[in-house]
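in:
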């Protein structure tokens, strides 16, 4: 064998020997595998950390926006509230104990609206340098930057400016007693359907009349509205009553004083039949009135609070229509129902929210009010005095919903 052949044989054997390949591959692969495992762990931490930071900035932004609108805080005070809230939200998180003051900014933009209203836009941004674990550092990176931001909006104006008209029954049956005792010492005539038109004896106990229950119910609604709008800046109310004829209304005015005084002045012992069509049509006319081509209510609110009002009509009866323009007949009763229903349609087509309350009313009266309400949820069937009060109170709460508009 020649020397050249021997060298070639040794080289071939060396290249063909695969005994050390695993060690070489392992030396290369192990750091990669460890680094990948470290990266996977850090990625999970990053996702959780970002979620915690997002919750913190969102909550802080909402807290600041709420403080500006509901608590009438200044912009400077709101910024302090936002930062304090942000830090509180991080308690228990991976960032707890880290001073993030320098990496967190709170920006609030205040915009003047019509009247005395203001709008606020709160933006919060933050960044956090998360330390990577030793395995991830094998790739040469020691930290990962996590950035998040949140925003919220609010306004000192109400969510819904309101124009509301009450259409109330003051027919003879409103003199009838309810199921609740008013006095056990003072006597009175407890009117009912069976003794109406007669001269019932004075007796004890004295029951509360339907008309008195109505006044209490309207008072309950007014209390809710006044708490929501103590300075009469967002609510306009009016009222009209009817029996077999229609009484002069009190027009829409700021606040609730005129409407409440109108209701409280209704007679303690009402008389007459029932014809709702003119009163209802008058309320619709007042709510949809225009002047020089402009919606009167929208114009009033635009000048006062810069908002577009939601229009409410509350229609209440304890009976059923019995006449039409002082003509008592079956034809008249049906005609009044027909015209009232037509006005209901007009109101709903005009965007008015129609609420109806049937107070111890017979089936035909209930049917009219059910069909007149904007939705089934807008119809209330009050079987007693407390039901009536609850109905008006609930309608008041719906109308007086004054909360900040907060959006992430």
């Amino acid at each position: 064998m020649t020397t050249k052949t021997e060298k070639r044989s040794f080289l071939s054997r060396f290249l063909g020997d695969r005994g050390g390949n695993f060690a070489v591959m392992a030396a290369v692969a192990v750091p990669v595998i460890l680094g990948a495992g470290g990266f996977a762990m850090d990625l999970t931490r990053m996702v959780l950390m970002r979620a915690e930071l997002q919750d913190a900035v969102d909550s802080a932004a909402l807290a600041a926006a709420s403080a500006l609108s509901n608590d009438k805080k200044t912009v400077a005070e709101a910024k302090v509230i936002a930062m304090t809230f942000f830090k509180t939200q991080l308690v228990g998180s991976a960032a707890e104990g880290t001073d993030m003051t320098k990496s967190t900014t709170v920006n609030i933009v205040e915009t003047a609206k019509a009247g005395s209203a203001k709008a606020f836009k709160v933006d919060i941004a933050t960044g956090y340098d998360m330390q990577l674990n030793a395995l991830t550092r094998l790739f040469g990176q020691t930290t990962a930057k996590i950035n998040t931001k949140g925003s919220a909006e609010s306004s000192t104006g109400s969510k819904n400016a309101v124009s509301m008209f009450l259409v109330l029954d003051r027919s003879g049956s409103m003199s009838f007693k309810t199921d609740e005792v008013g006095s056990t010492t003072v006597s009175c005539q407890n009117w009912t359907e069976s003794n109406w038109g007669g001269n019932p004896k004075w007796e004890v106990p004295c029951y509360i009349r339907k008309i008195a229950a109505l006044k209490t119910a309207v008072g309950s609604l007014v209390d809710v509205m006044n708490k929501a709008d103590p300075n009469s800046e967002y609510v306009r109310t009016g009222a009209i009553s009817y029996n077999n004829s229609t009484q002069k209304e009190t027009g829409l005015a700021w606040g609730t004083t005129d409407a409440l005084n109108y209701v409280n002045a209704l007679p303690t012992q009402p008389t007459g039949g029932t014809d709702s069509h003119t009163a209802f049509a008058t309320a619709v006319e007042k709510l949809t009135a225009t002047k020089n081509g402009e919606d009167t209510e929208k114009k009033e609110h635009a000048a006062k609070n810069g908002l577009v009002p939601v229009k409410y009509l509350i229609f209440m009866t304890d009976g059923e229509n019995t006449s039409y323009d002082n003509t008592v007949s079956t034809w008249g009763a049906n005609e009044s129902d027909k015209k009232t229903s037509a006005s209901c349609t007009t109101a709903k087509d005009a965007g008015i929210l129609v609420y109806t309350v049937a107070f111890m009313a017979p089936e035909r009266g209930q049917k009219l009010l059910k069909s007149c309400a904007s939705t089934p949820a807008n119809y209330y069937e009050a079987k007693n005095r407390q039901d009536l009060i609850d109905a008006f109170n609930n309608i008041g709460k719906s109308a007086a919903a004054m909360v900040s508009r907060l959006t992430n």
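note: The first helix runs from residue 3 to 16.
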